[in-house]
Amino acid sequence: MADQNVCDIKLSPNLDDSLEYVRVVFTHCSDIVIRRFTLFHTTDAALLYVDGLIDKKQVEQDVIEPLMIDRATLGVTPEDMDLIERIGVHAANVTSVNTYTDAVEAALEGKAVLFLEGLKVSLVFGVAGWPQRSVNEPGTESVIRGPREGFIESVGASVAMVRRRLRTTSFKTESMQIGRYTKTDVVVCYLETIADEKLIQEVRERLSRIDADGILESGYIEEWIEDNPYSPFPQVQNTERPDVVAAMLLEGRVAILIDGTPFALLVPVNLWGALASPEDYYERYIIATFIRWLRIAFAVISLTLPSLYVAVSTFHQEFLPMPLLISIAAARENTPLPAAVEAFFMEITFEALREAGVRLPKAIGQAVSIVGALVIGQAAVQAGIVSAPMVIIVAITGIASFTVPRFNFAIAVRMLRFPIIILSGTLGIYGLIIGLIAIIVHLSSLRSFGLPYLEPISPFQPSGLKDTLARAPHWAMMDRPLQTSKKNKKRQTSAGYPHHRQPTQNQEERP
């Protein structure tokens, strides 16, 4: 979509008219460069580009310098556009445009546009070269074992990282631009022989319906395309890791890469994917299963532990052994606040300290958050504002929340902790059960691009249980997830079973 001040007008053969039009369009744009020179020493020409978006060295060596040599040595005329493209310049990507709209948009995309006297066509050279950071390990998805590279803000580089892992012609990429003013490049990636065509079409339609001024990060698109915008649970997975994108594409899912951000979006997703870590598939399945059980258990603890403590200490003391009950009662003897208010106050304080630790510089952020928690907790206990058991409960809950590998899912659990504390403080254990039932009902009704959020548990699909609560060995997961790969269900065959399942000839001959 063109800007409002650029009309879809054909290029003029008069060079001065074209440059005057460009100057009017780019009024008060100090970064716009118009370089005039003589093409082949005979024809007036001008090169338009945006300073900072192009590689100046490449422009000088591969575009301007070849076009300024003597025409007699080439035996061509400026009207011979094909020869100019093939002989005159060395840029790898050369195209032509015939409207001012296309010329202006090409310049804003980091390309150089060549206007020629006497021609109604301009050449566009792909010489983009803005500063960008190098590839390094993702900060939000670090692993002990696995690849160390993550996406960067260039969508072209991100696509190349995925392409390097999926060396097949089935890997398809569809590009589009979203945003009236930002014109952000968005690339939809999928495996044609695996992904369901209905899912691909649904992704296309949801993206095409976005009509906004600008898209600056993947979070903009995520809110536009999710099924239920009022749910605290994420229905779109984000990741900085190319290996995660490749793995999801092999399961029939669709990836959305956005220029200007290192985060890619993956659809559809489910609850079990939010609780899974990339490292689950790089360690042996026994270790991965144990760690996944630990992660799920601590996710439940993160959600329910403060509420359970409030309910038991306030309404259901008979649940506790007598020595523990006496210890808790003694600790709470001088505490003026009810257990629910105490838990609410401590959880809010802990969340504030965690947020402060994230926003502060890295050199002092971690120290401030840890020291702040210790100092405030100890001072609050000594002052009699909160009890020591509550500090222990909040600390365990905070540690448990860090075991959830996906930040957007972890923060949803942290948010839901507060209404459950209120329910437990007013209705006891019944309030906790009501809150958990409400969450389960909501998760059962939630969809991600039509995929049930609790699938394959609800609806129950036995074939999909090999990668939910536990992770089966790679050689045992022969089928892809049913809902996302109806076109191509088989992931592998049984021919690659380990030797203990199919003994070799040498093993059979051993006594």
Write a concise keyword list for the protein shown above:
511 residues; alpha+beta
Task: Tell me briefly what this model is.
By secondary structure, this protein is α+β, with helices and mostly antiparallel strands. About 45% of the residues lie in helices and about 10% in strands.
Going across the major beta sheet, what is the strand order?
1-2-4-5-3
**Low-pLDDT residue intervals, each spanning 5 or more residues:** none
Quaternary class: single chain
- Structural class comes to alpha+beta
Strand content: 5-15%
Described by strand count, sense and barrel closure, the largest sheet is:
5 strands, antiparallel
User: What is the approximate shape?
Assistant: elongated
**Overall average residue pLDDT:** 84
Provide a count of the helices: 17
Radius of gyration: 30 Å
Number of strands: 12
Helical proportion, percent range: 40-55%
Order of helices and strands: HEEHHEHEEHEEHHEHEEHHHHHHHHEEH
For the termini, the CA-CA separation is 76 Å
